[in-house]
Amino acid sequence: MATSAHNPPGASAPTELDAATLRQTFGAYPTGVVAISALLGNEPVGFAASSFVSISLQPPMVAVSVARTSTTWPRLAGAPVLGLSVLSRGQGALCRRLASREVNRFEGVAWKATPEGAVVIEDAALWLTARVTATYDGGDHEIVLMELMTTELFSGVEPLVFHTSQFRELIPHA
């Protein structure tokens, strides 16, 4: 890749790699948002993650990166099956609630549980169920590898897009 002797318009000069700079840098990459949930007892427990990625088609695998400071992930890590709901365009407020430290993140939220105890969010763009197969050290995060068990796509439902700390809409390119 060729390098330029000057920065393009709007580019910033290289800066130190501190947490605030990295958060802003990583926020420049748009992502979807996934709710990761399961029943614990008879209550749904879950959180939102934007670090979701497909890994493999054979076997079907995905991964998510979870902050080591999460108080929800240690509770969910031992669940036999997790529900992964790719949130839809109108679910920004729900995403913020799932990402917060609120005690009852599911109050007023339409959800359903599978017989295995995975929880999926109604009106999401996509439902997946998965089981954790491995975890890896990811610095201040834990990388969680999961094997997919089921998938249900709701065609025509636009996903929630998170970019520069804002929710955005996808517009088809002409």
What do these coordinates show?
- The structure is a single chain.
- This protein has 174 residues and is mostly beta strands.
- The chain contains three helices and twelve strands.
- The strands form three sheets. Strands 3-2-6-9-10-5-4 form a seven-stranded antiparallel sheet. Strands 1-11-12 form a three-stranded antiparallel sheet, with no helix packed on it.
- The two termini are 29 Å apart.
- The mean pLDDT is 86.
Give structural attributes.
mainly beta, single chain, 41% strand, 174 residues, 3-stranded antiparallel beta sheet
Give a short summary of the structure.
With 174 residues, this protein is mainly β. The protein has 3 helices and 12 strands, in the order H-E-E-E-E-E-H-E-H-E-E-E-E-E-E.
Biggest sheet, spatial arrangement of strands: 3-2-6-9-10-5-4
State the order of secondary-structure elements, H for helix, E for strand.
HEEEEEHEHEEEEEE
Question: Which structural class do the helices and strands define?
Answer: mainly beta
Helix content: 10-25%
For the secondary structure, the number of strands is 12
Question: What is the 3D form?
Answer: globular
Largest sheet report: 7 strands, antiparallel
Q: Report the radius of gyration as a whole number of Å.
A: 18 Å
Distance between the termini: 29 Å
Give the uncertain stretches in residue-range form.
none
- The averaged pLDDT comes out at 86
